[in-house]
Sequence to fold (136 residues):
Amino acid sequence: MVREIVKDPFFLGQKSETATKADLSIAKDLTDTLNHNRENCVGMAANMIGIKKRIIAFDNLGIITVMFNPEITEKSGEYETEEGCLSLAGIRKTLRYENITVKYQDMNFNSRISKYSGWTAQIIQHEIDHCNGILI
Fold:
């Protein structure tokens, strides 16, 4: 189900809770909402649709990927960039890393560790910031 995008900085600034198997339906709503906003958005965190759970969905080279409870465990290649956000007006400067390693759970709640670089890594960092209540 496509959900409304939350634009309240107070709500978005709160840390999200650990996701469980009971939250699988949230992932469906998140991917539906991301697909609906694909012209203006490449990633979303669950708090952007009003649910404070550690779930993100993002465009991974044309395929929507969902991560439950993502954590960046390694990062390298710091750089400064500018980003926008569907939940917030405007463009802001932020620091990102060219290469990241992410520990997460997949849609079957199997533990995974994956490496990402470039644009995909930047998207994931932005969405994990959302989970941590960090707004750019």
In short: The radius of gyration is 14 Å. Residues 76 and 99 are 5 Å apart (CA to CA).
